[in-house]
Specification:
70% of the residues lie in helices and 5% in strands. The chain is mainly α.
Length: 84
C-alpha cells in the first residue's frame, strides 16, 4: 500500500470532493482519481460512491470503515519515518 494513496484518500475524506482534494495536495484531479481507484483495486472494495453531477462525494460503508484504519496507517507510517 502506497502512503500517497492513503494520503489522497484521507484528503478526500476531509473534503468530500476530488477537485478540492487535488487542489489541497497540489495534484491534478486525474492523479487523485487514479490514486483512489488504485487503492480501491488493492483493497478489493469500492470506497467512494461516484455519481455524476454531485458536488460532494459519498463514502460507501467500506469507505467509512476504512477512514479510521487509514488514519492509523498514516500515523504508523510517519512514526516509522521518524525512526529511520
Amino acid at each position: 500500500m502506497d502512503y500517497r494513496d492513503i494520503e489522497v484518500f484521507l484528503e478526500i475524506s476531509k473534503t468530500h470532493n476530488i477537485t478540492k482534494a487535488a487542489e489541497n495536495l497540489f495534484l491534478s484531479q486525474s492523479s487523485v482519481s487514479h490514486r483512489l481507484k488504485r487503492l480501491e483495486q488493492e483493497l478489493g472494495a469500492q470506497l467512494v460512491a461516484r455519481q455524476r453531477g454531485m458536488r460532494s462525494l459519498e463514502f460507501t460503508p467500506r469507505g467509512e470503515a476504512f477512514v479510521p484504519l487509514a488514519k492509523r496507517w498514516m500515523e504508523i507510517y510517519r512514526e516509522t519515518e521518524i525512526c529511520m
